[in-house]
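Example protein
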Amino acid sequence: MNAHIESETYPLGTLTVNVLGSFVLGFVLYEAIHTGVLAERTRVVVATGFLSSLTTYSTFALQTAVLRRPAWIVANVLATYCLGLAGVLAGRSLATRVDGRPGE
């Protein structure tokens, strides 16, 4: 039995879900901070409960580790972190626009 697993496919689904989750997290947290709509306890449940279940670092790490091509490993790490940060910033920008305030 071969215990070494390699993947020939890029984990685009995981990347997409993690970026989407980062965007929603950025929106929800900044919207809640600026408007006070969500209580702190609710924010914690949404952020660490629901959104942490949606996004998954362990899947990202495993799928990255089993990628066969080194260039895909680097691309996946960079894409996940850069697009995740961009998602949070886009969520923050949307939240400040919804609040009627100019972007920060």
